[in-house]
Write a structure and sequence with these properties.
β18 and β19 form a beta hairpin. By secondary structure, the chain is α+β, with helices and mostly antiparallel strands. α1 runs parallel beside α5, α2 packs across α5 and α2 packs across α9. It has 9 helices and 19 strands.
């Protein structure tokens, strides 16, 4: 059989791509080297933040609007709640990137929002104790997506539409011959008209040009769930998701977190946790006292009422591009191949729409489908 498209990687982006391909009537094969729903990549840890006020760049907001609609679509298909709206906080110094960027996105796209001082934020959400100099943008559409369940929902929906999903089958190599893509795995060889690479931290191993240009660099990340001393302040419905920037000892650091859900604790992470660039096949997946100390310091300082016993810690992977904007583009040498990579720790919320974009590439005319996404081009100076 010659497939319309082969998808390498069945995590967040790959599962959604497989579904959208199958929804368009494509003959699709999706290959995953680990189990479906594994905890070795970037989609585990119960949930991931979604926010419409986007500090990273206003250009993301139209994609986010589509992403929200598509999350609702897969919820209806799966008959399972995946998207939870809690409200979202983007906080930082008034002249910092997070506050300024979030406010700019709200103003440019007419998003309903409020600007809060640190004191006003604490009155609204008493779990926060941020420095007096900080300000926050509150946007009511923020929330989280159940990331692990979302992958399963997309895979199940793709299978129901006829997609072939192969787990525990590692790709050894791929090549383009006579205009078609041939993918060789440890179990077989497959041919397709198009190839979509959504391999997360393993993308640069499949696309050497990503590795050479350091466009998709894996980094070890650690999350903590702490039992709050006052859990009522951090429960679902009482506490929003947040993304914040703080100045600490001469450094600018970013933290993010969610209310209690799934694990009996308040969830917190730090972007670029301990700045550990890693090989995903050799990464230290244990959580150490040094990891806990980094996250505990932030909880003590900014969320003291959450500073109770540790409930859980987990490692995961961020795969960073140099400017932390995504890579959504055709391969620079092979127009039959599309790449979705470099999601830089803020990509999961876009999985629903990235899947649609990649399916459009494979089924509707190659790289022309991507021409309106200039921010995400491989060749753009980063």
């Amino acid at each position: 059989m010659v497939y319309d498209a082969i998808v390498i990687g069945a995590g967040s982006m790959g599962s959604a791509t497989a579904y959208h391909l199958a929804k368009r009537g494509g003959r699709v094969l999706c290959l995953e080297q680990f189990n479906i729903g594994h905890d070795l990549g970037s989609a585990h840890g119960v949930n991931r933040i979604i926010r419409l006020a986007y500090a990273e760049h206003p250009a993301y907001v139209p994609l986010l609007r589509r992403a929200y609609a598509l999350w609702r679509e897969i919820e209806r298909t799966a008959k399972e709640r995946l998207l939870f709206i809690t409200g979202g906080i983007d906080a930082g110094p008034e002249d910092g990137e997070i506050f300024r960027g979030s406010l700019a996105s709200c103003l440019e796209h007419g998003l309903k929002h409020e600007v809060l001082s640190s004191a006003e934020l604490t009155r609204r959400f008493p779990g926060f104790r941020l420095p007096k100099s900080m300000k926050a943008v509150y946007q009511s559409d923020g929330g989280f997506v159940l990331s692990e369940r979302a992958v399963i929902a997309y895979i199940t929906a793709a299978q129901a539409l006829g997609a072939e999903i192969h787990a525990r089958e590692a790709v050894r190599q791929w090549e383009v011959k006579r205009g078609r893509v041939i993918v060789e795995t440890d179990k077989g060889k497959y041919t397709a008209a198009k190839l979509v690479i959504t391999a997360g931290a393993w993308a640069s191993k499949l696309v050497p040009s990503l590795r050479k240009r350091k466009l998709a660099v894996p980094e070890r990340q650690v999350l903590i769930w702490a039992q709050p001393r006052h859990p009522e302040l951090f429960r679902l419905g009482a506490f929003p998701v947040f993304n914040m920037e703080v100045h600490e000892e001469g450094e600018v650091n970013r933290y993010y977190g969610t209310p209690i859900y799934g694990v009996p604790g308040f969830k917190l992470g730090k972007y670029h946790h301990r700045k550990q660039k890693v090989d995903p096949d050799r990464m230290d997946r244990k959580c150490h006292p040094e990891d806990e100390a980094v996250l505990r310091a932030a909880i003590r300082r900014y969320f003291p009422d959450a500073n109770g016993p540790t409930m859980a810690m987990r490692t995961c992977l961020f795969t960073n591009s140099p400017d932390e904007h995504f890579i959504l583009d055709a391969h620079p040498e092979f127009p039959q191949v599309a790449i979705a990579a470099g999601f830089s720790g803020h990509g999961f919320k876009f999985a629903s729409v990235v899947g649609e974009i990649m399916a459009g590439f494979a089924m509707m005319g190659g790289s022309r489908w991507l021409e309106n996404l200039d921010l995400f081009k491989i060749g753009r100076k980063r």
